[in-house]
Amino acid sequence: MVMTLSPMVQVSCDICSVAQKQGLYFKVDIPLWILFPKDYVSCVPKSSELAFLQRRQGLRAIAAIKHHHRGQSDQPLMISNAGEKKLMQKRGKKEHHLWRKRDSASSGQKALNLVHTISGLPNEKEAVYGALDKWIAWETEYPLIAAAKALRILRKRNQWKRIIQVVKWMLSKGQGATMATYDCLLLAFDMERRVDEAEILWNIILHSHNRSISKRLFSRMISLCDHHNVPDKVIEVFADMEELGVKPDEDTVRRVARAFEVVGQVDKQRLVMKKYGSKWKYIHFKGERVRVNEIS
Q1: Closest Cα to residue 205, out of 234, 241, 229?
Q2: Cytoplasm as a keyword (predicted)?
Q3: Whole-angstrom Cα distance, residue 221 to residue 203?
Q4: What CATH number should be reported for the domain holding residue 231?
Q5: Cα separation of 269 and 273, whole Å?
């Protein structure tokens, strides 16, 4: 596009040509010396101060036009590309998650699959461990929630051998070393009459989790030793319980007192009952539940 300022001067308008190519048309009544200060000032003789002011005003006008052009280009435009019109739209930001969320919704089905898989297997370590390895072969992380649910199902079905196999496999993988898992394994040892393995496991728990053993776990071990008539082990576990400052419940107190009675230490039996025994007991009197003092 060529504009004529005088018979002697011609000025090329690059901005207007670019706007015309992109389909932008605007009409403004601005003096030519503001729009094109460089060419106009060079052809019209003026003083140096006036030329400087006109040049600065012209640059401001050009900056305003460019800003207007930039604002128009941010909006979706219909442009032609190889004879076809395409709508240019802004794309939204795509969110990228750098972690995986544990999905507990499908853990129940995984637990049932595990129970069905190992229920029909023979009682051989290689067969059971191989099936368990296949169960987690395509998992991105260890399915600890599904394994805990599977142990709960096996416990309701009284499949104690399978519980022992699954828990030992979990511990060999370095998973599931929690008090609930240990409690389930001790109960399975109790039901399967594996007192020696229970003692080995208890020593491992005592040395590994010295300050975090719960009252429930102490009660489970004392109950196991009492079921299989091992009073010395009952007294030993109770001594560790007292050393760690864990207060026994009423059932544990009765078992410990009975163990002291079996070994012939009646004085310690009375001391345990006096220190940890409850002062009250409940009896039924005339059809009602009444609390009475045991000492009286």
Answers
A1: 241
A2: no
A3: 11
A4: 1.25.40.10
A5: 6
Q: Is residue 267 part of a domain?
A: yes
> Letter for the amino acid at 47?
S
**Six-digit token string for 4:** 């004529």
- Are 215 and 183 spatial neighbours (Cβ–Cβ below 8 Å)? no
Q: Which domain holds residue 163?
A: 109-176
Q: How do 2-6 and 280-285 pair as beta strands? A: unpaired
Residue type, 132: L
Residue 89 lies in a domain: no
Q: Does some domain include residue 277?
A: yes
Handedness of CA 47, 49, 52, 58 (dihedral sign): negative
pLDDT value at 73 more than 70? no
Q: pTM for this structure?
A: 0.60
Residues 192 and 150 in one domain: no
Rounded-to-integer distance, Cα 74 and Cα 67, Å? 11
